[in-house]
Amino acid sequence: MENLAVILPLIITVVAVLLGVLVIWLAVKLMWKVAEPNEALIISGLTRGTLESTDGMDFKIVTGKGALVVPGLQTVRTLSLTLNETELKVSCVTSQGIQVVVEGVVIYKIGDAPAFIANAARRFLGQQPKMESQVYNVFEGHLRSIIGSMTVEEIIRERDKLASQVRGASGVEMEKLGLVVDSLQIKDLQDPTGYIQNIAKPHIAQVKMEARIAEATRNREAAEREAEAAAQIADAQSVSAIKQSVAQANAERARANAAQAGPLADATARQQVVVQETEVAKLEADREEQKLQTTIRKPADAKAYAQRTEAEAQKAADISAAEARAKRTELEAQANARRVEVEAQANATAAAATAGATRVTGEAEAAATKARGDAAASAIKAKALAEAEGIKARGEALESNQDAVIAQQLAENMPAIVAAAAEPFGHVDQLTVLNGADGVNSMVGGIITQAGSFLPRLSTALKNGQGHAKQQPKQPGA
User: Kind and range of the H or E element at 39?
Assistant: First the structure.
């Protein structure tokens, strides 16, 4: 019992505390109000002097958080911050005096700033459906005012400009109402008088005409395309037939080539063998030609050239030696003749000195005459021997090089030959030469040419004479 008396007060205290906490929690729950994201709490009553109250306001605005509301002392109401929509259908008159009906829609809401919420709370708290009519009236007046300064064409072309001007003109009034315009759209423009329709008629006619022209053009192009397609089909069929024919011809040619492949391959192989053998024969012939050129022809040419050079040198040496012998013989004969003549004179003088005048003189004359005869005979004999030696040398030279001897004789007698060719001009009293120096040169050249034309005949005659002289036998004692 004593334990129970001790525990019972403790239990009662705990229960009382729990009950107090529960009561406080229920009271706080009933007094604590939380604002939704799309609404604002308007708390009126005992609010002046609190932190949440706005300067100049006798109520408190709570958005996005909670607030403690004391029942009996404070009242809390909600103001929706969601979007609202108002349909517009306003009859207006343009600057042209034309009546039009403008249809649009205004999307608006209460502004998020405390001033906008306060204005809207003062005007629409508990009466939010009235906002639609207020907004309609505001936009109706401004829409009529702005359309009255515009033409129908401007309204049609510049709807965005119209909406912007209406929003700008109604902005101050909407702010006083605590509202913000999110969007203003001009949906339609009705024309009871038919002005817009009449404006569109020329354009419609133009469009219809262009449509008909375009349709005709498309029909024409379609017909052309169809014709082109048909032509292309025909071309394709023709090409296909040609290709088939070509393919068939190629197939036939391939079969024929296949049939001829064996014999053709054999013939080609034989032809290649013949070609190779021909090339080998050509190479062997070239090799033999090179070998002949190297081993036989070039040495033979070199030997023939050496022999020819040696013969020409020997011939020149023989001619020179013969001429030298002839000249030496002639000089010796002249020297012998002078020596004999001198000896004869000396003998004659000595005989004259020892003999008597008459006898001695006769004898001396006789001796001198004899001596002169002997000297003359010796000179004639020496000259004859020299001429014989010269003839013999010329004969030997003729045998070795007849042309050289004849050429030397022609050169020695060339002045006489040219004089004989020019002899007809000696009987000409007056000679007229045309073209000046060129004429003289031509004339002289003709003379030399005429003289030159005699040279072959003279050369032939000399050859014949030399041969004839060679064939005649020598006379005894010559």
Answer: strand 39-45
Same domain, 67 and 95: no
Rounded-to-5 percentages of helix, strand, coil across the chain: 75, 15, 15
Is the CB of residue 394 less than 8 Å from the CB of residue 374?
no
Count of beta carbons in the 10 Å neighbourhood of residue 393: 22
Flag residues of the chain having pLDDT under 70: 1-4, 6, 47-57, 297, 300, 304, 311, 318, 322, 326, 333, 337, 340-478
User: What does the buried/exposed string (b/e) look like for 133-149 if buried means 16 or more CB atoms within 10 Å of the residue's CB?
Assistant: ebbbebbbebbeebbee
pTM beyond 0.90 = no
d(CA 16, CA 324): 185
What gap in Å lies between CA 97 and CA 92, rounded to an integer?
9
Question: Do 87 and 195 share a domain, yes or no?
Answer: yes
Q: What is the dihedral of CA 114, 119, 125, 131, to 10 degrees?
A: -120
CA angle 152, 153, 155 (to 5 degrees): 65
Q: In this structure, what token pair is assigned to residue 373? A: 């005869």
Decide if 143 contacts 168 (C-beta within 8 A): no
Q: Tell me if residue 290 falls in helix, strand or coil.
A: helix
Nearest in space to 144 (alpha carbons), one of 104, 193, 183? 104
- Per the structure, the count of domains in the chain is 3
Interatomic CA distance for residues 428 and 450, integer angstroms: 18
Q: Which residue has the tokens 């009382």?
A: 16
User: Which is nearest to 116 in space by CA: 167, 143, 147, 81?
Assistant: 81
Tens digit of each residue's pLDDT (9 = 90 or more) over 362-419: 555 665 566 566 656 665 665 666 566 656 655 665 555 556 556 566 556 666 665 6
Question: Which of 199, 225, 242 is a domain's end point?
Answer: 199
Whole-angstrom CA distances from 267 to 128, 160, 255, 258, 457 are: 115, 95, 19, 15, 69
Domain boundary among 174, 199, 224: 199
